[in-house]
Amino acid sequence: MNAREEILRRVEEIVPARPAAEVAASYDRIDRDYLRRHHDGGVLDLFAERVADYRATVLRVSPADVPATVAERLSARPGTYGVPGDLPGEWLAAAGVPLVRDPDIASLDGLAGAVTGCAAAIAETGTVVLDHGAAQGPRALSLVPDYHLIVVLADQVAPDVPEALERLDPYRPLTFVSGPSATSDIELSRVEGVHGPRTLEVLVVS
Q1: pLDDT tens-digit series, residues 72-109
Q2: Yes or no: is domain 36-205 CATH 3.40.50.10420?
Q3: Is the pTM of this model over 0.85?
Q4: Closest C-alpha among 60, 56, 85 to residue 148
């Protein structure tokens, strides 16, 4: 038994693990009689507005315009870009810049940026959620490069938080992105790019 296992054993002695059925039953008893949706219409407009409020660049494009728009955004920042291995090829058809699919951890710091999809988005809060599944790559790809371009499809945008959470698997590594990385921890001076990309651009495809 290693140190980790020993610590977990001691914790379990103090707080014994509960059977899965008991845990599920306790969640079912939670009162969820709250307003689940604040907006029925204009969800994409609201999402674009809220994302822009966080100092991110938002571009509304049609599916046919995605390749040209991606190429335009990447060409504005010369360099090599990291992309997930399963990112749709048509999004990159006109990229015109060097691309590395599934870059290794050691190379991330040298990339000009990353291009990914997402798992869901929340209009009310202007948040994009990555679960690092299809078309998203590992978490490091979305956190280390200084620039992140996220493609958000219209049907991925939920009006509010409860609906978005229902679309997500809580057992996956979820990353909630609300604008470029920023902190005001030191004397309330805003510094961007400390904990993630300094520049965030979002393509809303509808």
Answers
A1: 999 999 999 999 999 999 999 999 999 999 999 999 99
A2: yes
A3: no
A4: 56
